[in-house]
Each structure stands twice: as C-alpha cells, then as structure tokens.
Amino acid sequence: MRVIVSGGGSGGHIYPALALIEYIRRIEPDAEFLYVGMKTKMEGKIVEQAGIPFEHIAVKGLRGKFTFQNVQAVSLLGAGIVKARKIIKQFKPDLVIGTGGYVSAPVVFAASRMHIATAVFDADHSPGKANSFLAKYADRVFVSYPEAVEKFPHPHRVVVSGNPRGTSAAYYAQKHPKSAHHRKHITVLGGSLGAQRLNEAMIDLLKVAQTYIYDFTFVTGEQYYQEVFAALPEASHKAEILPYTDDTLGLINNSDLVVSRSGATTLAEIAALHTPAILIPSPNVTNGEQLANAKVFEAKGAAILLADEDLSADTLWQAISKVLDHNEQSIMMTSSMAEMAQPDAAEIIYQTMKKVVASKRK
C-alpha cells in the first residue's frame, strides 16, 4: 500500500499520523509513505527525525472577518490544492489520510477530487475547522469520542476508532513493562509548546524542600526552558528539567503520576500506559476542548481536574498528595485509566480504510 499522510501545527495532529504509519508498517512492511506538511512548522522537524519522506505545502488558516490575511490564506489554499494534485500524481497513493491542521485541507481535498480513498482523523469532541471542511469530501471520518459523531456532516461515514497514538503507547507498554521505583516519580508535561502558568507553579513547588520526597521530570517547553532553569539553580540535581522530549511514552511509562495539559493525544498516551493524572486544561484551546477531555477522565475516576485559574504550588501539591499519599487512590485511578485506553484505534482505521481502498479499485 502507498499512503500519503498529512497533519501539522501541533503534536496533537502529528503524533496520531506517525502512529498510523508505525502501525501500517508493522502490518505491511513493504508499504510506502509520504508525509505532507509545512517544513517551517513542528511537523518538519519531527517527521524528518522519524525518517519519513516529506513534501512541503504552504498554507495559512482563516480567522474571523474579511481581512488581507484571509485573502492571502485563500490564495495559499488554492496554490496548495494545485501542489497537492502534483504530489499525488507523482506518488500515486492508494490512500490519503489527514489528521488535522490547515495543511491537511488541500491534500485530502485534492485526493478526494481525484477519486482516491480518503480519511480524516479528529481527536477531539468537536471537529477542527480543517476536518469539518474535509468531512464533506472524505470517504471516512474517524473520531476518538462517540459524542463527536453527530457533529460532522454525513454521520454515517463517521467511525469511533479512538486515537491511534493509543495504539503506539500500548505497543510501547508491551515492549517496556513498568518497573517499580524506590521513590515515586512524577512527570510534568506542559504540552508541545509549553504552559507558562504550569511552569510558574512548578518553579514555586520545586523550591519547597518537602517536594523532594518524590522524583520529578519537568518538561518546560523550549521557549520557557532558560527562564525555568535560571529560576531553579538548586533544583537541577533534584529534578530532571527538560526543554522538550521526543520520548513522551518513556517518561509517562516511568511515572507513578503525570501532571499535564489535557490534549486528546496526550490523554491517549496516558490512558494506554495506565498512569494516574492531574489534568490542567489549557484555557487557550478552541471550544474548551481540553476542559471537555479532562471532565471525561475525571468522571471516570482516572484523573484529578485542576482548573488553570486555580493552579498554584499549593493546589498542585495538594492534588499530588491526594494521589501519591494514599495507595488505594493511586490503585483506583490506575485501574480507571486502563479502562480509558484505546489500544485498537490504529487497527480500526487501517482495516476500515483497507476495505475502502479495495472498493475504489473495482
């Protein structure tokens, strides 16, 4: 099978795409892949490191009212569709999959007009702008949550698959069983771009001696790293402070507790690795998606929800203590998190689209 995958702008769009590629490669070792994205965005660096062939398309998102920027965005979209058609003609894919972000729009749209099997994946409770547009043209739409089905046009084409990043995380867990620690370990993740308020709370927390009954790995986000590191000169030998990690699965799997934003892809990883969590939804995400995600996990008893406006060193420490100072609480949350896992997501997408590809060949 020859597959084009497109998604970008954030880790939540990129890592599900890479998870699909990883799964299909395990099933079809001879499959060939091409990733289409923007080389100036996150996907350019991440996909290059993964060793996957990459083609660049320039796009820009539409925002609000009629503006020069929106005129430019429409112009870039048109040019993007033209380039996407050229890429598709050259690569000759059997399947084109978009995983979100504006860059996927011209690619999936062009493929659909060329009668190639197409799919989009949307990780959240409500569709993003690109996926909402593409759902009108794609053969199938895959979603993480049942609540998302009716929010797309043509609900009969929508399949509840779960997030394929959960498949990658479950596979990782099989290969790397959790090991017991002499001291309990906490990983703090601010998301792919970092989270200033969480970083500020962690700076205050790590200045308090009592916190060192636990080990910490603290991922600050690259733009905040120097500021955080400078603020914690005494903490560097007590906590591992990182600007960024491409080993999120390893960090989560090595943890007794994760403190994190509540992006859908991060939650798929945490659930698959059966790790209790304190979730701090970002207030800056469209449609309150992270809050909706966190409420689902809180309701199932898998996580503690801590609102961003309530976040401080004190409230964070109280939440940490509630989980790790009481073994019964930790065990219950671990069990609940395991029930939230979606280890078969990539298989559902692959098997469904394999049938669509076969029908297109008839």
From TrEMBL:
A single GO BP: regulation of cell shape
Topology class, membrane: Peripheral membrane protein
Keyword Ribonucleoprotein: no
Top class in the EC scheme: transferase
Domain Glycosyltransferase family 28 N-terminal: 3-142
Pfam families in the cross-refs: Glyco_tran_28_C (PF04101), Glyco_transf_28 (PF03033)
Compartments, record wording: Cell membrane
Pathway annotation: Cell wall biogenesis; peptidoglycan biosynthesis
The EC number(s) this enzyme carries: 2.4.1.227
Function: Cell wall formation. Catalyzes the transfer of a GlcNAc subunit on undecaprenyl-pyrophosphoryl-MurNAc-pentapeptide (lipid intermediate I) to form undecaprenyl-pyrophosphoryl-MurNAc-(pentapeptide)GlcNAc (lipid intermediate II).
Similarity comment: family membership: Belongs to the glycosyltransferase 28 family. MurG subfamily.
Protein name: UDP-N-acetylglucosamine--N-acetylmuramyl-(pentapeptide) pyrophosphoryl-undecaprenol N-acetylglucosamine transferase
